[in-house]
Amino acid sequence: MVSVRHVVGLCKVTMYAIGLLLLQIHLVSRLPYQSLRIDLLLLLVVALTVELPFVVSITSAVCLGFVVEVCSGRFYGLHVTSYVIAVLVVSKVLLRFEMHNPLYQMAVAGCCGLIQGGLILTFFWLDQQIPTLSYTMVASLVARSLVMMVVAPMVILVLAGVWNDT
Fold first, then answer.
1. How far apart are the C-alpha atoms of 103 and 165, rounded to whole Å?
2. pTM (predicted TM-score)
């Protein structure tokens, strides 16, 4: 049964997601260093997977991934794939660990960032944008994952506050 409280909570989470998307588009994507250009919506997907049932998490991951794909205008399938993989990873971790611990959130977000980095390298290689794999590119993607690890508890805590505020 859907109540007014659920609808208000959904609206708050939607507004938070739109805010993160705008922050991603207008600030994060314009940072001067590639390793600082983290994917805030991947962190949101991790946070949503902790709070929502599996089927709803997969659905929201596909929808968010599609929105990011449309906004970026390239890499069709990269974001959807990485978000769905993130849901699968988090759902498996939830079976073993308590994801409300910031250290676990950081570790899972770092793993999801590394998986997304591997997918980025694969898409670049398939698109013939990089002929060979360079150490600086790999180091940049690892540094990006480390930055995502640091930012993850903040994004997840704010979502938990918005989610539980209703």
1. 23
2. 0.86
